[in-house]
């Protein structure tokens, strides 16, 4: 018993749905692709350091990559802690100045102001402004949720970069043989030469960009 062939309309709908689904998938995984590319570039930049450590210490590729990766993590954590300390100290000084300014403003607000014989109470005016602003601040929870979602997303992609960077750093040399093995044996020697030339050009380009 043969299945009934699809009609022309059904085939068109399936093709259109597949194209829409593919476009949606590309858009959805775009941040993931960017994270993987960033991790690959980082691993490519630190690969010479891993090779040098491997040659000088006679360690294998895995342990050399782990040492470089761990040192980089320690550097990132140390810089983050240093920046956090500096920011906290500045915030503490700023908070003290702010409290002093608030005290002066409160003292000034308690004194009435007379303009053209009309007495005005600044504190009453400020209270009115605060009440008007309270309604505007009612949307803060939604904004806070959006900010929290953005921070969580950034942390997720940062974690993706760190994990992918580690595996690229450890298994990076295996990518070239894997790519070459995808082609027929007759083309593999030329591909080895081509990939080596591209590797040299890329290293020179990235080094020039960093300098």
What does it look like?
- There is one protein chain.
- By secondary structure, the protein is an all-alpha fold.
- It has one domain.
- It contains seven helices and two strands, in the order αααββαααα.
- Strands 1-2 form a two-stranded antiparallel ribbon.
- A hairpin with a 2-residue loop joins β1 and β2 (118-120).
- The longest helix is centred in the middle third of the chain and has 49 residues, at 61-109.
- The chain is flat and about 95 Å long.
Tell me briefly what this model is.
With 211 residues, the chain is an all-alpha fold. It is built from seven helices and two strands.
In spatial order, strands of the major sheet run: 1-2
- Mean of pLDDT: 75
Instruction: Give me the strand/helix succession.
Output: HHHEEHHHH
**How many H/I helical runs?**
7
As a percent range, the share of helical residues equals over 70%
Q: What's the total count of β strands?
A: 2
Low-confidence stretches: none
- Tell me about the largest β-sheet: 2 strands, antiparallel
Query: Could you give the distance between the termini?
Result: 70 Å
Strand content: under 5%
State the domain count: 1
Topology (elements, then pairings):
Layout: H1 8-28, H2 30-57, H3 61-109, E1 113-115, E2 118-120, H4 122-136, H5 140-171, H6 175-181, H7 188-210
Antiparallel strand pairs: 1-2
Keywords:
7 helices; 211 residues; 83% helix; single chain; mainly alpha; two-stranded antiparallel sheet; 3% strand; flat
């Amino acid at each position: 018993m043969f299945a009934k062939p699809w009609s022309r309309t059904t085939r068109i709908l399936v093709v259109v749905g597949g194209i829409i689904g593919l476009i949606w998938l590309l858009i959805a995984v775009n941040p993931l692709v960017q994270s993987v590319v960033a991790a690959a570039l980082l691993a490519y930049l630190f690969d010479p350091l891993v090779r040098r450590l491997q040659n000088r210490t006679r360690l294998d590729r895995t342990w050399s990559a782990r040492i470089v990766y761990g040192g980089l993590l320690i550097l990132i954590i140390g810089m983050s802690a240093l920046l956090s300390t500096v920011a906290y100290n500045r915030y503490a000084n700023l908070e003290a100045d702010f409290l002093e300014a608030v005290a002066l403003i409160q003292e000034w607000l308690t004194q009435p102001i007379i303009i053209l014989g009309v007495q005005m109470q600044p504190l009453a005016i400020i209270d009115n402004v605060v009440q008007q602003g309270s309604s505007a601040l009612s949307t803060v929870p939604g904004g806070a949720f959006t900010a929290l979602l953005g921070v969580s997303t950034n942390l997720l992609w940062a974690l993706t970069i760190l994990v992918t960077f580690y595996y690229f750093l450890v298994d990076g040399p295996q990518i070239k043989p894997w790519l070459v093995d995808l082609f027929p044996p007759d083309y593999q020697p030329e591909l080895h030469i081509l990939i080596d030339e591209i590797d040299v050009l890329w290293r020179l380009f990235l080094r020039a960009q960093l300098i």
